[in-house]
């Protein structure tokens, strides 16, 4: 069962941090993250691994060392089975859950979907046959005063700029949205995505909501992974309105269908 209140509250305080102050994470917080890695398994095809190391040989910058993760004492790796059809969206769902848990613990994080060394990451998590590391997040405490580089990277990602709901949602007029639908959509809107592209689209129908990708081409991080993040955010928002949801995963370009139980 999702810790709805805890993670829903964490949505607003979560932001990406690339530079950390090197302060160790308290053992009790690491233990709670490890426990969540073991217990939060939304699909058999994915798993999360906590690595108590900076990952200095794993993370790489956008151009050389520029934008590289620095000073984090630990990181999380999100691992999936390559041949499973829904692995990308479930990696997004799993990873965002762990990131929101870290946020609720007062820790800083940053989705890293492309700028890491696959071979080094694979060694750190002991991949099984047929598995791949799809994404990482550093874990730690960000610098109290952002460096110039950090501000540039945040500006480049336009992290707090989000498309209006009107450009992300079709179907039923907004004035007719049920409370749980509105809450879900408002929670999905600030979900993080690669270069802030927000590739999710929602169609609100009379008794269901359908999540799809925007249909554009992937270059680095799969759009279905980003949609998996939005899928979790939507569920947290909707469930915060004291409803029960059914979710069915759908083939491309659709991602999932939500209905009330």
Question: What's the name of the CATH homologous superfamily of the largest domain?
Answer: NADH Oxidase
Which class best fits the helix and strand makeup? Answer: alpha+beta
Secondary-structure element order, N to C:
HHEEHHEHHEHEEHEE
Query: What do we call the CATH topology of the largest domain?
Result: NADH Oxidase
Please write out the topology:
Blueprint: H1 4-13, H2 27-39, E1 46-51, E2 74-81, H3 87-104, H4 118-125, E3 131-139, H5 148-157, H6 165-168, E4 169-171, H7 179-188, E5 200-204, E6 209-213, H8 223-239, E7 245-249, E8 254-260
Parallel strand pairs: 4-5
Antiparallel strand pairs: 1-2, 2-3, 5-6, 6-8, 7-8
InterPro entries: Nitroreductase-like, Nitroreductase/BluB, TM1586_NiRdase
Organism: Dethiobacter alkaliphilus AHT 1
Protein name: Nitroreductase
Describe the structure.
The chain folds into two domains: 4-153, NADH Oxidase (3-Layer(aba) Sandwich), CATH 3.40.109.10; 165-260, 3-Layer(aba) Sandwich (NADH Oxidase), CATH 3.40.109. The strands form two sheets. The chain has a five-stranded mixed beta sheet with strand order 4-5-6-8-7. It has eight helices and eight strands. β4 (169-171), α7 and β5 (200-204) form a beta-alpha-beta unit. The chain starts with a helix and ends with a strand. Mean pLDDT is 91; it is low at 155-159. It has 261 residues and is of the alpha+beta class. The protein has helices spanning 4-13, 27-39, 87-104, 118-125, 148-157, 165-168, 179-188, 223-239, and strands spanning 46-51, 74-81, 131-139, 169-171, 200-204, 209-213, 245-249, 254-260. α1 packs across α3 and α3 (87-104) crosses α8 (223-239). 34% of the residues lie in helices and 18% in strands. Residues 9-238 form the Putative nitroreductase TM1586 domain. It holds the Pfam family TM1586_NiRdase.
